[in-house]
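Recall the central idea of this unit: under ordinary conditions, the amino acid sequence of a chain determines the structure it adopts. In this exercise we apply that idea directly, starting from the sequence alone.
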Amino acid sequence: MLTLEHICQARYRLHGLLPRTPLISSETLSKRFGCRVSLKLECLQKTGSFKPRGAFNKMLSLSDDERHRGVVAVSGGNHAQGVAFAARRLGIPAIICMPGSTPANYVDATRGYGADVRLTSCIASAFAEVDCLADQGRTRVHPFDDPLIAAGQGTVGLEILDDAPDLTHIYVSIGGGGLISGVATAIRSVRPGVRVVGVETHGADAMTRALTAGRPVEMPAITSIARTLGAPKVSDFTLETVRRLVEEVVVVEDAEAVSAGCLLLERVKVLTEPAASCCLAAAERQRARFTPADHIVLLLCGGNVSAADFCGFRQRFLSA
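Accordingly, the structure predicted from this sequence is:
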């Protein structure tokens, strides 16, 4: 089971490798919600998301022989860039398998960080390629089903506790569940009364389906525009952690996430992915619950959306 000690160890390992991202207050959102609202700008992290935290923590645990043989990962999103960046910094050869439908900006960025990118016909063939390469001796760096990965992501929670010790609610996106597992473990271990709310988008709601079924279930398809939330299914590890530590999981529509992203860009001046702006959309749904004594923190986990895609989303969902 993931513990606060594991996350503190990860923080020690990561010291000096990644910048501490800012937590800022938002006057606009504070007025809107009737309480203090702060934003954790993890979208400003290296590679544009939280992913290098877990990747570094995993790879720093490898033996010299494992580092020499290299790592392999499958991703069509931010995990690819996080692994590629950390591997380059540590001098570890990395292969990233991606489905051919991956947006060009993700592919180009991953190659730019020095990884060997292998495009496959679909996500299933990408996983098959990873299995083959792992059988040949490379270490698999899973995007979420690994306590070392989740512990690295949990260092975000420690930073939030440092900067907002009086927080009462935190909204965290869920893809496969590694981020919320780490953040919830860090925060609830220190402040057990904090309300942790997970957020998914309709069509990328693998955790909600798992909670309903009582076990991880395969998504028939990922239909949400929030591509970086598109895990085919969660894991037993992340499902159990969410059951223990997360108050509820809210599923919002893509249109709500896009509207929230436009508000963040116009009023806060930060560009976020739908996978991050969905946290504001979820808080917006629940703002009648907040009191003036509350301190809401929205974890904006990533900003890797192209200008073309952002404009397309706005045109598609908000032009009417």
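The beta strands are 23-25, 36-41, 71-74, 94-99, 116-120, 139-140, 169-173, 195-201, 248-252, 295-300.
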